[in-house]
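User: I'm writing a tutorial on reading structure tokens. Could you give me a worked example: one chain, its sequence, then its tokens, then a sentence or two explaining what the tokens reveal?
Assistant: Sure. Here is the example chain.
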Amino acid sequence: MIGLQKTVLFFTRRPKLKGTAAFTSGVALILLRWPVVGFLVELYGIFILFGDFFATIGSFAGNIPIVGPYIQKALNRVSEAGGGRRNTELPCASIGEVVRYSRSEVSDMKD
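And here are its predicted structure tokens:
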């Protein structure tokens, strides 16, 4: 489990505030009996919050027989459309502390 502190840190980071607000507003709209509009606003919030994970999901989905490469290609396009960001800012143990890794450092960690 990632814990409450890291979860709060993830959803309250400056780049994620817009997505958090959209998702919360979508839930409120659904509760106020505007389900279609609320669902679309929630969907927008999900893309803002988790859009940088689509490339990671696509790499795993690429191993699915027959349809995997198509799913991978679609998720990579969605990820690139969102600015092509990767998970380079990872929440740390203390709130406000952010660690930035370069691609070479991440590849060194995998070895």
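What the tokens reveal: The longest helix spans residues 35-50. Residues 86-98 have pLDDT under 50 and may be disordered.
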